[in-house]
Amino acid sequence: MNWIEITDIEQLQTLDAASQLGPVVIYKHSNRCSIATVAKNRLVNDKAMNDVKVYEIDVVAQRPISLAVAERYGVRHESPQVLVIHGGQSIYDASHLSIFPQEVMERLSSPTQA
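Below the sequence we write its predicted structure tokens.
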């Protein structure tokens, strides 16, 4: 997987621009949470996701950015949480132990089916 850490709120504009060309993935993570570790390991260990670019937000270190994502895309702030953004809108989100790589891959391959 290609992990891109989001550390500046301005990066959300870049993410939005990229989502106009195709769906992108945001993963909100906390190193303080064992469920977040399980969810991230699911994504990392799934071979289908090897070539997926994932924008990662550390919800502890980057709380304002994490909250801005929730507001910007109209989803409830949770952690861990995965979102698929397409055309500047959230077309999929899941949190905690409901995060499954195969569902993320389905949204990436068929973003209009959300």
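Helices lie at 11-21, 34-45, 63-73, 101-109.
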